[in-house]
Structure formats: C-alpha cells, structure tokens
Amino acid sequence: xxxxxxxxxxxxxxxxxxxxxxxxxxxxxxxxxxxxxxxxxxxxxxxxxxxxxxxxxxxxxxxxxxxxxxxxxxxxxxxxxxxxxxxxxxxxxxxxxxxxxxxxxxxxxxxxxxxxxxxxxxxxxxxxxxxxxxxxxxxxxxxxxxxxxxxxxxxxxxxxxxxxxxxxxxxxxxxxxxxxxxxxxxxxxxxxxxxxxxxxxxxxxxxxxxxxxxxxxxxxxxxxxxxxxxxxxxxxxxxxxxx
Length: 243
Hints:
Number of domains: 2
Helix content: 40-55%
Largest sheet: 4 strands, antiparallel
Number of helices: 6
Order of helices and strands: HEEEEHHHEEEEHH
Radius of gyration: 25 Å
Number of strands: 8
Shape: elongated
C-alpha cells in the first residue's frame, strides 16, 4: 500500500508540475503580445520572474506573493506581486559615455514613476509595466545609436566634438566656410525624443549664437532621430557659407 501511496503522490507532483508548466506557457504567450523585443525572460518560477533589458545591462526581478483574490491571469488565479526591483549591471568604467547616458535616462524614468509595486500589485498589471519600460528602453537605445553615429560621422556635418556629461550632450561645431566655431549644449531626459530639448550656446568664433540656433531648433520637429536631425539642420542652415 505504501508503494501505491507514493506512486499516487508522485503522480500528483507530476500533474502539478505539468500544470505549472502550462501556466508558464500561457503567461509567456500573453507577455509576448506586449513584446517590444526589449526584454528577455531569464527565469519564471513559483517565487519570482527575472527579466533582462538592454543587452543584459538592466535586470528586473519580480517577486511573487500569494494568489490574488478574484483575479485571473492566463486562466489561473493571478499572483500578487510583493516587489519589483531594478538593477544596473553596466560597467560604467568600461562602457562608452553614450551607454552610460542611456542607462542614466532609463533609471531616471524608473525612479520618476515612484513605487512600481503600487502600480503593479498583481500579475495582471505586469504586461503593461513591461510595455511601459520597453518603450523608454527602446527610445533611449535609439538615442545611444544616434550618439555613436555622431561620434563616428560628425566631421561630415562640421561637428568637431561630442561630449557627454551626466545627462547633457555638448556639441562643438566648427566651419571655416561659415567662419564659425560654437558649442551647443542639449539637456536630455527620459522623454526623448517626444519633447523639445532645452539648450544653451557658447560662441567662440563668428556670430552664430543663441538666436540663430533657436531659429534652427524651432524648425526641427520632435520624433525619431531627433538629435541627428538637429545636427543635420545646424549643418545645413548655418555652416555652409558666410553669414
């Protein structure tokens, strides 16, 4: 009899494991619908889920609590969420300045939202949270690519130097044709590229100053590749010849 009891227990355990796997598959299907291809699921267990973002440089650990009353997720009782913790694994000493800036903006966004656990008290809210985070990660990642592009190809647009400090980007332009050398400092935030960028100008040579830069910037619409388009526009409108 003992053997048959053990067999029955084993079967129950197996059935339970099978159920868990089914739940996991169903959860993954739902999460995939929200996939911005910006997160990767590293672990999903009874205790927690772990997600990686941005080439494994940002990790989100979601710790599960008991089932949530009267709420369902993937056709099973939804789990409550005890905590959502974000951690950075970027090596700031080794990483290029553009990657450090991207990381700062992402964590600026994560902090700006206050308590993630309050916004995401159960599994039911997790896909939306992942979507919101992915949206910002995606925009910041594109910004990083723009900065790399400008560092590599800036000379084509009379961009002498790109300097990144904290969340500011300093662009030094120099053109002998326009007899001008000046510096434009842009203040970036996690809203990039959906809002106009605050800026300041310092003139070294010539007469291109705040008024001229403001006129150019006001003509550049916000949106995809905003920073690159600002540089193209300054080059096109101010640096082609004498003013």
